[in-house]
Amino acid sequence: MSEPVLRLENVARRYGDLVVVEEINFSLRPGETAALLGPSGSGKSSLLHIAGLLEAASAGEVHIMGRATSPLNDAERTRIRRATLGFVYQFHHLLPEFSALGNVALPQLIAGVKKKEAEAEAVRLLKLMGLGERVHHQPGQLSGGEQQRTAIARALANKPKIMLADEPTGNLDPKTSDVVFDALLNLVRGEGLAALTATHDQRLANRMDRVYVIRDQRLVELKKEPA
């Protein structure tokens, strides 16, 4: 069995006397998908931010690709984020002045990839997301679901090993949510990524390999409900 690409060991997050999460132990291997359920304010976003090195844990350790990250300086943590992690949020945050192609190519250009190669990879990802006919459209010309699928393609542009998604369909109607979630799962599994997705939707969560909930500040694995 392959080694975990993401491992949280006895992780806690506190703000003074307020305990957000504690004693979190969790791991993900390549190709695995996990859902994180819980209402707003339960700590889902904080846990994702800790896993994504956007927020420091108050205690415990986050291991990325087998490497402990707490001893690292800010520059090293930033390098790991850029090289290893892909982020998808509830709101797409696409740049309105760029086309779908330009939005997906941009992270690669920033990373030093040549324009021709970056655009070829952007087209490949957008086609995988079912947007082959929309590559030259600007965000304002795309539907909400198409914008979110473009954001997912952008998150994978630099070939991360881990995707972290925070309510990626939370701003969409149920039918569009299904389309976006199908595209996300197909792309994640096709590319062999590990993915942790926070959602409030039990139905969508059930389609992932494992389902967790934050309960009383701790992470509890749930038995998946029948499809």
TrEMBL record:
Pfam families (UniProt xref): ABC_tran
Domain called ABC transporter: residue spans: 6-227
Transmembrane segments: none
Coiled-coil ranges per UniProt: none
Keyword ATP-binding attached: yes
InterPro entries: AAA+_ATPase, ABC_transporter-like_ATP-bd, ABC_transpr_LolD-like, MacB-like_ATP-bd, P-loop_NTPase
The entry's keywords: ATP-binding, Nucleotide-binding, Transport
SUPFAM superfamilies assigned: P-loop containing nucleoside triphosphate hydrolases
GO molecular function terms listed in the Swiss-Prot or TrEMBL record: ATP binding
PANTHER family xref list: IMPORT ATP-BINDING PROTEIN, LIPOPROTEIN-RELEASING SYSTEM ATP-BINDING PROTEIN LOLD
Family named by the database record: Belongs to the ABC transporter superfamily.
Name used for this protein in its record: ABC transporter ATP-binding protein
